[in-house]
From TrEMBL:
The keyword Hydrolase applies. The lineage of its organism: Bacteria, Bacillati, Actinomycetota, Actinomycetes, Micrococcales. It comes from the Bacteria. Transmembrane segments: none annotated. Pfam families: Abhydrolase_1 (PF00561). PANTHER family: AB HYDROLASE-1 DOMAIN-CONTAINING PROTEIN, HYDROLASE, ALPHA/BETA FOLD FAMILY PROTEIN. This is Alpha/beta hydrolase.
Length: 281
């Protein structure tokens, strides 16, 4: 019997082709049962998942991460809308042969998860929505402005933009940011190619469209939903987490103090047990 891999840094890279796109993905944890499919954030590749979140979840669940179309080693061009990205995610899940999955969406990934569950409710058992907001959410269309500003700040100080975008620039946030960036570099072999500039810009435009689109009927979401964020999210305003909580029936909300967009990474020790209890229920 082959050893079950539960460390994300060791997860092998696989591919599956569907709808003319070859998706690059990684799997870890014990197979069998409902897998947890992770949907990644703006500009991210598979290497952007925090191993302190992935690894403990993989100890209890079958975990799958993948790169969206046109990102990393996945072929094709980045779609221009969140809805098309959700279509791709559904295609990928079905190509792996799954009829039901749990979705864990962070930021852009949380938007994709919402679009997917609204269109394919039968495909989703549970939802975790972190650092994200609903279609038509006030302030989401400002993401590009905040992002470009922080990318510039990071470039001038030779730091990773995520240190500015995901964390508060204070005594709690700065060390949490550095620790997070270090964890992202734990994997040394078979890393994903970084996102290309035009792919990143296409994703930003899709997020802007999402922010300016008609609000979706989140009341139709019957799946158990866990919503999480920091209390000071500059990218996707924290109040939108409250908004989703009010609109998704029976949803649960956790907001972490003195933290930003990456609140679940800053508070991974507190968040992971909550996520595991929710997924295992």
């Amino acid at each position: 019997m082959s050893k079950v891999i539960t460390a994300y840094k060791d997860a092998p890279v696989s591919t599956v082709t569907a709808g003319g796109v070859t998706y690059s993905y990684r799997e870890l944890g014990q197979k069998g049962g409902i897998p947890v499919v992770f949907l990644v954030h703006l500009a991210a590749t598979m290497d952007n998942w925090d191993p302190r979140v992935i690894d403990p979840i993989a100890e209890k669940h079958h975990v799958i991460t993948f790169s969206n179309r046109g990102v990393g080693a996945t072929t094709g061009n980045v779609p221009g809308t969140i809805e098309e990205m959700a279509e791709d995610a559904a295609t990928f899940i079905k190509a792996l042969g799954y009829e039901k999955v749990d979705l864990f969406g962070f930021s852009l990934g949380g938007m994709i998860a919402q679009a997917l569950v609204v269109k394919y409710p039968e495909l989703v058992r549970k939802l975790v929505l972190a650092g994200t907001g609903p279609a038509g959410g006030k302030g989401i269309d400002k993401v590009a402005r905040v992002t470009y500003y922080d990318v510039l700040r990071a470039t001038l100080t030779r730091q990773d933009p995520k240190e500015f975008l995901f964390f508060n620039r204070n005594a709690a946030g700065k060390p949490a940011a550095r620790a997070f960036i270090q964890r992202l570099n734990e994997r040394t072999a078979n890393r994903d190619a970084p996102i290309k500039t035009n792919a990143f810009q296409t994703q930003l435009k899709a997020i802007k469209k999402w922010g300016r689109s008609e609000p979706a009927n989140l009341g139709a979401i019957s799946q158990p939903t866990l919503i999480a964020n920091g209390d000071n999210d500059r990218m996707v305003p924290s109040r939108l987490s409250d908004d989703m909580h009010l609109r998704i029936p029976g949803s649960e909300l956790v907001i972490y103090p003195d933290s930003g967009h990456g609140g679940i990474f800053q508070y991974h020790q507190e968040f992971v047990p909550v996520a595991l209890e929710f997924l295992g229920r």
